[in-house]
Amino acid sequence: MTAELVRGQNHPLPDTPLEIRVSAGHPVVALATLGDADGRVTGAERVAHPGAPALPGIDVPRPATAEHRFAVDPAALPETVHRVSVLLVLPPGTSGPDRFGAVAAPFVSVCDQEGRALAEHTLTGLDRETAVVALELYRRQGAWKVRAVGQGYEGGLAALLADQGVARPAELADTVLEAAARPPASAAGAPRDAARSVSQDGTGGGTISYTHPRRRPSAPAPDPAPAPTVPAPASGEADPASPYPAPVAGDAAGWSMDERLYNQVWGMFEDLARTAAAYRSARDFAESRLDQELDQVLADPRARIGGAGDAARAAAKARHDDLVERAREVLDRDLDRLAAEAEVVEPALPVAYARWDNPAWHAYGAPDEPPMAVRLGDLHLPERPELRIPLLVRLPLERGIWVDSGRDRSGAAGALDTAELRRLALDTAVAHTARLLAVHPPGRFAVHVLDPAGSGTAAFAPLVETGVLAAPVARGAAGVTTVLEQLTERVDLLQMALRAGAPDALPPGLDTARQLLIVHDFPHGFDDRAVTRLRYLADEGPSAGVHLLLVADREDAAAYGPVLDPLWRSLLRLTPVPDDHLADPWVGHAWTYEPPVLPPGSAVLRQVLAQVAGARPQNRR
After folding, report:
1. Helix (DSSP H) and strand (DSSP E) numbers for the chain
2. Given the DSSP bridges, would you call strands 65-72 and 373-380 parallel, antiparallel or unpaired?
3. Under a CB-based contact definition with an 8 Å cutoff, are residues 33 and 46 in contact?
């Protein structure tokens, strides 16, 4: 059964040689890029194009024509290759069209060794673009999939290559297009062998085989079967009826388990984003097509006689329902797979990535090095709210954090009274602080607290009583001024030393640990000078190891008007209650953010903070 993919949709592929067929209404240049685990193309040697058509595992066509056939062997691709992007470009300097919107929609299919189409995609919706990523083959959990992309670039091939991280993209684009314009060196008109394989050395000469030198021969590709709608068993054993391998924690690129789990979580995040996008795109297409067909029925006078109109409307509705149902089946299949992976990955996460109810916290020990990232909550989409993706933020923090205690920016927040919401916001900030302290080595992360009115005494008690703060909680306008002066001076000294190229030329006794400043009840206790210093710390502090955690309601600072707009924009806004304000970097979905929640009655936070305090160098015996 051939899968007809809409933009963003994916489909599993066998681990055997494949052929990619391209059909366009006008000659196009076809090429492929080989990306790493982050999708970046590390150099021109990772681009197969008419001037260099053969790379290990892939062979692309040479001339610019309306029909192309790629040979791809996933098993022969280097282990560092995780993504193969198929690119189509309109050749410049010809009498033909200068944009994809002026030609018939290109059609791309992925076929097995016997020529049977496994997946197909029609690139619709293009207009002024002259280069397009048609589809991509990508490695996920040890298996290969194909995803329909259809992303076009008005800036042409150079803009496309730049977006994939290629160095000097304009030069490479010129090389590709010049090579495509040259006639092939071999006899013109010789038929291209559709079943041609790729040699391991990339020369394409002699007897060519798909056999990987370090692998056993692959079994013949099975007939494509409908994907299962049940997840793999939680025990980790593969379901014999499933074409997917069983999910494994840490089955991603990376040198350490920390890196592999981080990359795996982000891979799940991307898969869920694109899977939901494909479903929504298919659903929107079905709605649009139904509206068009109903309009045609109403515009046809013959449909008003007898039951012809009712029959046409019923047929249009049936086609709509069938398309939506098939899209939902694919969505459920992918969500089931991601849910099964989440069940395996979540228990394996280290404390920096784990929820507060994870047993890993009961075996907590102070780390020797900080991790790659820290978990600041969970994300989910309405298609399956119970499927949560950890929100992992890289360390060191590149921007400050704002825990929004306002009531008018979230439906859940609007249901709470102001006092309760402010309490939840401060508790959330304390939980973030405890985690940041716990994941840094002893003595390498210091915390300061500004509580001018003293209204956060109860919430700050775990930090004060366990002794993890660098100094007593600062109160009143004088306390605000003193702490801000100290941290501003620290940022100035570090920046001057770095600019002078003398990072060791710092005053003796200067604390080199990273600093976190928690500001509560902003702007209470702040004058204009203090506000200016706070903005300075938010902008310049992260590069000098000073980070801001602001707990505030934006309306409380409304008197400052647009002066504070840069401050709010510079911070990562988080909420103490669920709120759909975060967007992913791939398709821009509105994700519902869930703040970290401590188990009811749990003492884990205080226990961890006590261990953090006890592990500090000055507290060791």
Report:
1. 11, 21
2. unpaired
3. yes
Q: DSSP 3-state assignment of 595?
A: coil
Q: Report, as an integer, the average pLDDT of 192-211.
A: 32
Please state, in angstroms and rounded to a whole number, the distance separating the CA atoms of residues 33 and 165.
11
Q: Which amino acid is at 400?
A: G
The CA distances from residue 516 to 443, 473, 510, in Å, are: 13, 13, 15
CA–CA separation, 148 and 366 (whole Å): 45
Residues 44 and 166: their CA atoms lie apart, in Å, by 7
Tokens for 552?
């505030």
Q: Which tens digit of pLDDT belongs to each residue from 540-590?
A: 999 999 999 999 999 999 999 888 999 999 999 999 999 998 998 888 889
Phi and psi of 24, rounded to 5°?
-130, 160
pLDDT band at 255 (very low <50, low <70, confident <90, very high): confident
Cα(575)–Cα(428) distance, integer angstroms: 8
Give residue 242's pLDDT: 59
- Please tell me the predicted confidence (pLDDT) of residue 298: 79
Instruction: Give, rounded to a whole angstrom, the gap between the first and last alpha carbons of the chain.
Output: 69
Beta bridge partners of 592: 380
Query: How far is Cα of residue 424 from the mean position of the Cα atoms in its chain?
Result: 29
* Residues ≥6 apart with Cβ < 8 Å to 33: 41, 46, 47, 48, 84, 85, 87, 161, 164, 166
The whole-number average pLDDT for the span 486-501 is 85
340: enclosing H helix or E strand:
helix 308-348
User: What are the C-alpha distances in Å from 586 to residues 6, 158, 245?
Assistant: 16, 21, 26
- Rounded Cα distance, 224 and 116, in Å: 9
Percent of the chain with pLDDT over 90: 53
Question: What pLDDT is stored for residue 228 in this prediction?
Answer: 35
pLDDT, mean of residues 455-480 = 95
**Residue 34, helix vs strand vs coil:** strand
- The highest-confidence range among 233-237, 289-293, 300-304, 369-373, by mean pLDDT, is 369-373
What are the backbone angles phi and psi of residue 21, rounded to the nearest 5°? -110, 135
Which phi and psi (to 5°) does residue 184 adopt? -60, 145
d(C-alpha 231, C-alpha 371), whole Å: 31
H or E stretch covering 570: helix 565-570
Q: What pLDDT, on a 0 to 100 scale, did the predictor assign at position 190?
A: 35
115: left (phi over 0), alpha (psi -120 to 50) or beta: left
CB 571 within 8 A of CB 550: yes
The pTM assigned to this predicted structure is: 0.69
